[in-house]
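quick one, 111 residues, struct below
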Amino acid sequence: MANTKEQQLAIDMDGTNIIVSAGAGSGKTAVLTQRVIRKIMDGVDVDRLLVLTFTNEAAREMKSRIRDAISKKGLKEQLDLLESSYITTFDSFALSLVKKYHYALGISKNI
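---
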């Protein structure tokens, strides 16, 4: 299936962060997957990208699709980096920052 003009813009846009916001079933996961693969093909390691979603299910689906796309392209080194990448939920990422910098926030590291 061909991408819409807006989807292709989200895939190809460089030099800035993007937010992909659209209704259920509109192709957000496919667009973000294609964007990640394009970044990888441009020389960016997958573990240098931050891909955030709202639900654990969406994060798992995103990582699975990216894994499949990386495998199909034969990019073994990227497949090895995938497990240490930040493809997660906003909440999980925020919690990881709080845990990492607990001392600067003046809170227990066991939050």
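The first strand starts at residue 50 and ends at 53.
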